[in-house]
């Protein structure tokens, strides 16, 4: 982990712990909930993630968060009161320069730079300057007209001087670069501070045949003897806890039956008979009109001395380019004098492809809680009936598919209901 200090939308963020591989866009969205920064191609091509670093437009999807140590970052949320941005928003609306709106935050950030830096820009100049921002809806005509209209308005008002001209070469924000010791903290930033911590699964060492993993203070710890997969994309990490009224040894034995555990997940089934350490699951997920059938494989490591374990693997949708990798660490803790067991679970996952944006919203935490509740209910039911069918096979899955869209709707409805409930109580 690295510790960075930076200013985001005029507010100092101090002591933010990030993985060296974490991109600025992921840090802003997952850590600061600044979801106005959109992610599209994640290759620096489409421009949807464009924001300002030290006043210069930058692609946040290919900018490392650690490279912004000491920088001044402005996202679309920080431009609400900007005069140029206010004029651009009005012009975009007037000229019908947006349809789905996904590219709009990055489009506006780039357009603001063009307006300030090119006060005499022609239509051709605008098209060339904005060519790094892609739009799949509008055909760009309204966008170009909107930018041109704002330039003409400012020219008529006497704004004819180039602002924010480029004066240096090199990557945006590179002027703050300084050596940083591993895990160390650079010089503190003065002023009011906000502490942010980004949790991500750590890479782990190869398996050893010697002593078992030592006990740790936190109940979610597990023996991390292998990595889930070799990928540079950071995982989203979630922590969940639930309790079942069964002894720990009984729950531990159940978790050793991979077929039973797998089919406790909503929408999950088995592609082949599992072994003690390997399982090949299939998970059917529905998000609106999108139905994905993820097929993959997972391996398991368990430490009976500590009652902790780790499941790690990857899967790919058979119909699209969507793929996922992840790891689940679990720990069993005795409660109620051994009559109940608390299950502490840490889930780390990364999605790529058409379903990738589903993992970036803060709503996913609420959805994960509901999925955990469903898993816990299925687990209780299996334990109550001995875990397996009479022939020893795993019981049928609880659902033919995981309807993520319905979960999103139920979460949103609960939030909206809660908001109006508070509003009327205040009145």
Automatic annotation (TrEMBL):
It comes from the Bacteria. The keyword Iron applies. InterPro entries: 2Fe-2S-bd, 2Fe-2S-bd_dom_sf, 2Fe-2S_ferredoxin-like_sf, 2Fe-2S_ferredoxin-type, 2Fe2S_fd_BS, Beta-grasp_dom_sf, CO_DH_gsu, Diverse_Oxidoreductases. Pfam families: COXG, Fer2, Fer2_2. Residues 2-79 form the 2Fe-2S ferredoxin-type domain. The keyword Oxidoreductase applies. Keywords: 2Fe-2S, Iron, Iron-sulfur, Metal-binding, Oxidoreductase. Residues 199-232 have a biased composition (Low complexity). Gene3D superfamilies: 3.10.20.30, 3.30.530.20, [2Fe-2S]-binding domain (1.10.150.120). Residues 198-236 are annotated as: Disordered. CDD domains: SRPBCC_5. This is 2Fe-2S iron-sulfur cluster-binding protein. It comes from Variovorax humicola.
């Amino acid at each position: 982990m690295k510790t960075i200090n930076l200013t985001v939308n005029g507010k100092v963020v101090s002591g933010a712990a990030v993985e060296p591989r974490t991109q600025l866009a992921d840090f802003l969205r997952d850590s600061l909930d600044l979801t106005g920064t959109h992610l599209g191609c994640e290759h620096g091509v489409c421009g949807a993630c464009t924001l300002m670093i030290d006043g210069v437009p930058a692609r946040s999807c290919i900018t490392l968060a650690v490279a912004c140590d000491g920088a001044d970052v402005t996202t679309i949320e920080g431009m609400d009161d900007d005069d140029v941005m206010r004029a651009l928003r009005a012009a975009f609306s007037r000229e019908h320069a947006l349809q789905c709106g996904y590219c709009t935050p990055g489009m506006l950030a780039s357009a603001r730079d063009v307006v300030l830096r090119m006060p005499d820009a022609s239509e051709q100049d605008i098209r060339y300057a904005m060519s790094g921002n892609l739009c799949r809806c509008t055909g760009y005509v309204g966008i170009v007209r909107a930018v041109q209209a704002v330039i003409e308005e400012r020219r008529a008002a006497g704004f004819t001087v180039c602002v924010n001209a480029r004066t240096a070469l090199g990557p945006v924000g590179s002027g703050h670069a300084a050596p940083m010791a591993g895990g160390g903290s650079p010089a503190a930033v003065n002023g009011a501070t906000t502490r942010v911590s980004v949790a991500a699964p750590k890479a782990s060492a190869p398996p050893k045949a010697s002593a078992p993993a030592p006990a740790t203070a936190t109940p979610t710890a597990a023996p991390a003897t292998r990595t889930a997969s070799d990928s540079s994309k950071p995982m989203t990490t979630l922590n969940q806890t639930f309790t079942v009224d069964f002894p720990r040894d009984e729950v531990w034995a159940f978790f050793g039956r991979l077929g039973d555990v797998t089919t406790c997940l909503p929408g999950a089934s088995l592609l082949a008979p599992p072994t003690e350490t390997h399982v090949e699951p299939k998970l059917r997920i529905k998000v609106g009109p999108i139905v994905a059938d993820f097929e993959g494989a997972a391996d398991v490591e368990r430490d009976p001395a500590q009652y902790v374990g780790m499941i790690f693997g990857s899967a790919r949708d058979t119909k699209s380019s969507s793929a996922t990798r992840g790891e689940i660490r679990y720990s069993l803790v005795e409660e109620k004098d051994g009559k109940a067991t608390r299950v502490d679970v840490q889930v780390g996952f990364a999605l790529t492809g058409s379903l990738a944006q589903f993992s970036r919203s803060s709503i996913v935490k609420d959805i994960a809680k509901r999925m955990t509740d469903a898993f816990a209910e299925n687990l209780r039911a299996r334990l109550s009936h001995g875990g397996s069918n009479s022939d020893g096979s795993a019981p049928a899955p609880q659902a033919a598919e995981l309807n993520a869209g319905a979960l999103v709707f139920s979460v949103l409805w609960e939030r909206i209901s809660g908001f109006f409930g508070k509003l009327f109580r205040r009145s």
